[in-house]
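Project standup — Tuesday

K.O.: blocked on the structure for the chain from last sprint. Re-posting the sequence here as requested.
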Amino acid sequence: MTKLTRLVVLISGNGSNLQAILDACVSGELPASVVSVISNKADAYGLTRARNAGVEAIYFAKRENESRRDYDARLADEVTSKQADYIILAGWMRILSSSFLSSFPNRVINLHPALPGTFPGTHAIQRAFESYQRGEITHTGVMVHLVPDEGVDNGPVLATEIVPIHKDDTLESLETRVHQAEHCILVETLKTIISNTKT
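H.V.: unblocked you, prediction finished:
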């Protein structure tokens, strides 16, 4: 039996992309297993999704007066203990410093709901929608990229997908289509990475 690729998923919120990964692991589409889900938010629904799937769910709180680098170093120790092959940032809303990233070169993968070079940071879909309304763009998209350093949403790109914006779109309808694209591109990219590392 081939060894499953071990994934640790970091989340801060609802965890719909986590759910896409969990479902793909269960169906066998993704030859991987999520060994731990870690959130910096105690009330992140993604933790419930993990527990429902029988996966370890950890709320990783920041200590009082703890520096960002100390938190990241502690988080790196926690993730290292899981023996993960890859760390997936699926809606993780903290910028990771080198105290974390240096422990996992070329193994931290982020999903961002915008195309390379557009709308880095938070509220990317809303900002794209507003830009469309001003006539500045005709489409947005999603990307999966490596996280080599502390740059925001600008690491080496692994995959992109364009998401058109329709004239009758609301922010909610656009968000729905962007999330659907995210779920697909994230699973497909992980499949490609895993198959390439196994050959």
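K.O.: great, moving the ticket to review. The mean pLDDT is 95. The first helix runs from residue 16 to 27.
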